Amino acid sequence: MRSVLKSYLPALLVASLSLVAASGAPAADLLDRIKEKGQIVIASEARYPPFEYVENGSIVGYGVDLFNEVMKALPGVKIDRLDLPFQGLLPGLQTEKFDAIITSVTVNKQRYDTYRLSLPIADASFTYVKRKGDSSLKTPDDLSGKSVGTQAGSAQLKATEALSEQLKSKGLAPITNIQTYVDFNEAYADLAAGRTDAVVNSLPNLLYLQTQRGDAFETVKTTFGAPTYFSWAFRKDDDSKSLADFFDDQFRKLAADGTMAKLQEKWFGFTMKLPTDALPVPKD
Q1: Is the domain defined by 126-224 classed in CATH 3.30.420.40?
Q2: Would you give the distance in Å from CA 269 to the centre of its chain?
Q3: What is the rounded CA–CA span in Å between residue 270 and residue 256?
């Protein structure tokens, strides 16, 4: 019996050491699991041209092209893209319904503190669009006493509310009414119909809108508030860190080789100078 047990001891020792080594090995993080599964699940709002929108049944735009460039560094990984209202994106990310938000998320302090936001993908400074020929609106202060539309739950809404308070502090009338919408297309429709006086959005979006609807709209190019950026969003935890780092590294490469500038020229008609070392910490 002793000889039998003696013959089994080396094998038991090896098995025990293997179990110890396995238990001490770091668990696969989100990026590892994406590579192993061969699939990444992302969420977008495909109602935000020229970043993401539907054309001929397919989601297209600057953000789509940029994401496809990033994914060239993950060959063999398929993309499962969910098209959701913006109001559901950040809560869905927190509850792990998808791996990342690949759509234009305006950077602000609350989001910066809650989520891991990527390096900037575009400028997002705020301004507004008016009906073409409306000579009463030329500057942000001219929104005093006006009815203004923007998207519900957005950074643009907070910026509009802040502007209204600034107008009051200057002794001007605040914005009379801030009307919110599920998406900006609804806001533009109300503006065209005369139900509001202006729509607040980010400058790149409104310049693009003017190229498409210059017969109806005119963008006021004077921005208000602090310089702001668009980012993509990830969960702010150790599990998502390597995935977010991967995207930032790819952005740096695409900025350095001129790919990002080419995509900006394609979709916006101009290029943007964006920080590539780190995302600036927002004040508000």
Answers
A1: no
A2: 20
A3: 17
